[in-house]
Write a structure and sequence with these properties.
D-amino Acid Aminotransferase, Chain A, domain 1, 33% helix
């Protein structure tokens, strides 16, 4: 086994990039590297980073100065090499390597591989095949370019990435429309990389032919090809990549020609020490470079090259940066991979993703990524340049992988609600194919200043936040409501004592509160609102109002809050996802039929309330007469739909869950209620008055264990896992409480989820949080941090989604 020469070395990584780059950092840690990251802020990469240097990577002078300061303050840390996996920072990396005498490319190579116009000029001057082009600074330049180069042609930004705003045109009118389109939308607001573009575009001849991406590394100025992807047909006129084959379906002669040409291009462009991703078109028998990137190819490139050619590009990038000679060589491919992107036909909001087992269970799937979820917006050209994800399948032949991937796409269902000119989505009328909804999206981001600001908050800056409390004041003499409404004041006091600036907003006085929130400078609102206009049915609207005002908030979104009040729909979702719940039926009027196969005793509940409203000892019925009477009470007196469930005799468990991402959810210690000491005549339930009354009653005989004693680990795990599934299915955020009943045979049944449970100081959830090691203030801060993280890693309104299909 070869010695790992990378182990213990200190590597500077310039920019983490998006969370899709997580696999890179995982690999770097497995290689035993010490990782110092230069980035604007700490983020999702925290578990993999040893030390951070915080600087704006688009401000090169500031970034270099911050590295100097870091080295002066940490002389024990010797940065031995630097690398970037983010296209935007290729020029910055070259400046860092020069300033600190590290191995890398020079400034000329960085410019040649980022400036698309200069790239073709270098190839032309060095006698290599090139693409005819003209630089566009104005419409006057466009008219000259059209006259000299003709059609078909391509308009693209000088400094761009990922085919964004690369557009094919076929006549003068299309050229004019496309130029106006890119000029208007190709801005730093859309993507920070366009800070470098300065409204410069290129008009190039369109090159017909088959397209390939040639993956290389260059060390000591010598290029080496390690693998070639053959791209499947582009989605024109916007050059959206649809997928590729590996290895390519071409002759050895053509492969050798591609390799030789890519190597020649890298030499003349001055690339000396880095990975390289060379995009080439074969126009007949003559290759033409489309673009060159002096970094690792994106998406599945790393995994596929490793799988087919057994060459580790990430490891090699580190060896180059650290001055270690690469000894590995790619093997001859013995398998075949076909990759394909999930690209919708229209921009829209994802409404359904089904049958993912086609990916999870298919042995031919070598890798896949879904970077969008139900409820996410997807913008395809001309609105944006996104996809839903991708899948790679591996087999013994091209025919096998073709069949396998077609089978996957036939089985998976992805549906979108398209943006339309007559709807609130997009709000555009498309005069032509270049008319765009991008400006609507951009303006929404600019308006959402609070959401953008909250993304920049680090944990150390937490106490600088101005926290709002969305809650209720109550002036009546109902002790139960007084207790329910006191949570906001207690949160206000606790956070105030911990040094926060706090403002209370009473949603029982909505007009005043609405105006105050609009004018306030609160950074984030702690949403524990229970009522609006003193109605619990309007509780979800508090979150909807905050969304409309674009104010970040803690807790679940309005969809989840509304859904969980509607117990009937919750039951339908639980049943759909095969989560055990007591057998049930429902009625909206006394004429509705109730399933006679339900076994007595039954419990009759209002179908759309929370906090046990409408639940009394009479709610449990043992015959048809009692059932009818209780249904009449709910339907006619309370004027609510009725939910009828089989009553489960047994202990009740409350499962508190905190978190958002599936792999970061935390289940706090369980709480168990044991009813065996209850006197005769009282059903083993928690009626409304008991939950909120401090008076002594027979319900004081309920034994509460936190955490439970004398239950098996298997049962505890089953209850927890069932609660986690419920939390995900109902798309709860930050925290929530799942109620579960266990029968005499230790079969657990989900009763309901409360996505906005009371978190007053003496309540159940703060109690189990304290058992887990968090005092009340720490518990509240944990919720704020989780909410900030949600906004930090996702676009506005991302939370209006379902996270488990």
């Amino acid at each position: 086994m070869k010695e790992n020469l990378l182990y213990g070395k200190t590597l500077l990584v310039v920019n983490t990039g998006s969370i899709k780059k997580k696999f890179i950092f995982q690999k770097l840690k497995r290689l035993g590297l010490k990782i110092v990251v230069l980035n604007k802020e700490k983020n999702w990469a925290q578990p993999y980073v040893d030390q951070w240097i915080l600087a704006d990577t688009y401000n090169h002078d500031e970034a270099v100065e911050k590295i100097k300061n870091f080295q002066a303050e940490n002389p024990e840390v010797k940065i031995e090499g630097a690398v970037t996996y983010w296209e935007d920072d290729v020029p910055l990396l070259s400046k860092i390597c020069k300033a600190f005498r590290l191995v890398g490319n020079g400034g000329e190579a960085a410019t040649n591989t980022r400036d698309k116009f200069r790239m073709q000029e270098v190839l032309r001057k060095c006698g290599l095949p090139f693409i005819k082009q003209k630089l566009l600074r104005s419409e006057k330049d466009l008219k000259k370019a059209v006259k000299e180069i003709g059609f078909p042609a391509v308009i693209k930004p000088v400094f761009g990435a990922e085919s964004q705003f690369v557009t094919k045109v076929d006549d003068p009118e299309e050229a004019k429309q496309a130029y106006q389109y890119v000029l208007k939308n190709c801005t730093p607001e859309f993507d920070p990389i366009f800070r470098y573009n300065e409204s410069l575009f290129i008009y190039q001849e369109y090159v017909e032919g088959q397209e390939f991406s040639v993956e290389c590394y260059v060390q000591h100025g010598i290029p080496h090809v390690v693998g070639i992807h053959e791209k499947t047909v582009m989605d024109l006129p916007f050059f959206l990549e649809t997928g590729d084959y590996l290895p390519p379906r071409v002759s050895n002669e053509k492969i050798q020609k591609l390799e030789k040409f890519a190597e020649s291009a890298l030499i003349v462009l001055g690339v000396r020490n880095s990975l390289a991703h060379v995009e080439v078109k074969m126009n007949g028998h003559e290759p033409r470079v489309i673009e060159v990137a002096s970094r690792l190819g994106g998406d599945y490139t790393y995994e596929n090259i490793l799988d087919i050619y057994a060459f580790d590009l990430i490891k090699s990038s580190c060896e180059i940066a650290l001055g270690i000679n690469i000894e590995d060589e790619p093997r001859e491919p013995k398998k075949y991979i076909l990759s394909r992107y999930f690209i919708p036909k229209n921009s829209g909001v994802i409404t359904k993703i089904r049958d993912l087992e086609a990916l999870h269970k298919n042995r031919k799937v070598s890798a896949f990524l879904l970077n969008k979820k139900v409820g996410d917006e997807v913008f395809i050209p001309p609105d944006g340049y996104e996809n839903i994800g991708w899948v790679c399948v591996k087999g013994e032949s091209y025919a096998e992988v073709d069949k396998a991937i077609d089978n996957i796409f036939d089985k998976i269902t992805i549906e979108l609600a398209p943006f339309k000119s007559y709807s609130s989505f997009g709000k555009t009328f498309r005069k032509n194919r270049y008319s765009s909804a991008l400006i609507t999206k951009k303006d929404s981001i600019i308006k959402a200043r609070k959401i953008e600001n909250i993304r920049k908050v680090s944990e150390r800056d937490l106490k600088k936040l101005h926290i709002g409390i969305a809650c209720n004041l109550y002036s009546g003499d109902d002790p139960i409501l007084n207790d329910l409404m006191s949570v906001g004041r207690n949160i206000e006091k606790t956070l105030g004592d911990r040094g926060y600036r706090v403002t209370f907003f009473d949603f029982n006085d909505l007009p005043k509160t609405f105006s105050e929130i609009r004018k306030s400078d609160v950074d984030i609102i702690f949403n524990v609102c229970e009522r609006i206009n003193n109605s619990s049915l309007l509780e979800p609207h508090s979150a909807a109002i905050l969304d409309a005002l674009q104010v970040p908030y803690t807790g679940s979104n309005p969809m989840t809050l509304a859904l969980c009040i509607d117990k009937i729909r919750v039951k339908k979702l639980l049943a759909f996802h095969d989560i055990p719940t007591p057998k049930w039926d429902y009625a909206y009027s006394m004429d509705d039929y109730i399933d006679e196969e339900l076994r007595y005793p039954l419990i009759v509940k209002p179908g759309n309330t929370d906090n046990s409203i409408g639940i009394t000892n009479d709610s449990v019925v043992t015959n048809k007469k009692e059932l009818k009477k209780q249904m009449e009470y709910v339907i006619r007196e309370m004027k609510r739909p009725v939910l009828v469930e089989e009553y489960i005799e047994g202990d009740e468990y409350d499962v508190t869950i905190m978190g958002n991402d599936e792999d970061e959810l935390q289940s706090l210690p369980l709480s168990r209620s044991i009813f065996k000491n209850m006197p005769p005549g009282f059903w083993h339930i928690y009626p409304y008055q008991v939950k909120w009354s401090s008076e002594e009653s027979v319900y004081d005989n309920i034994v509460v264990q936190r955490p439970p004693r004398n239950i098996s680990q298997k049962l505890a795990s089953l209850i927890t896992e069932m609660a986690l599934d419920t939390y995900r299915v109902l798309d709860c955020h930050d925290y929530g409480r799942v109620e579960i009943r266990v029968d005499a045979n230790n079969n657990p049944y989900v009763l309901e989820l409360n996505p906005n449970p009371s978190i007053n100081i003496e309540d159940l959830i703060p109690h189990v949080a304290e058992i887990a090691g968090m005092n009340y203030g720490e518990f509240l801060e944990a919720i704020i941090l989780m909410a900030i993280q949600r906004y930090k890693n996702n676009p506005p309104y991302y939370h209006l989604q379902s996270t488990m299909i």
